Amino acid sequence: MAGLTLMRRLVTSLLVVMILGFLLLIGLLVTRFPTLNAPVSYDFPENITLPAGISAQNFTRGPDWVGIVTDKNAFLIFDATTGELRQTVEIQSATQ
Predict the structure, then answer these.
(1) Distance between CA atoms of 76 and 68, rounded to whole angstroms?
(2) Is 3 helix (H, G, I), strand (E, B) or coil?
(3) Best label site of 17, 72, 77, 80, fewest CB within 10 Å?
């Protein structure tokens, strides 16, 4: 019976240690990664003016540029600070 009591205490101790370790792991994840819950701004840049008759479908940001996918099958690349158009890439539709 002494061996059974020892085994029960060891299993209980292991359970408590595992629960505490799991809680510690969750606590570290919550405190070390607070930016996971931070809101992300997807606002269209104010300093960029699109050419007449073109509307933006989507946009992406680079380190010093902003790329805009337009409804006219083009990808426009603007300077992020000045808003000046750097490059226009025409998108060809795939032939079937």
Answers:
(1) 5
(2) helix
(3) 17
pTM of the predicted model, to two decimals? 0.54
Sequence-ordered list of residues with C-beta below 8 angstroms from that of 78, at least 6 positions apart, any chain: 45, 48, 65, 66, 67, 68, 84, 85, 86
- pLDDT digits (tens), the chain, 96 positions: 888 999 999 999 999 999 999 999 999 888 877 666 666 666 777 888 888 888 888 889 888 899 999 998 899 999 988 889 999 999 887 775
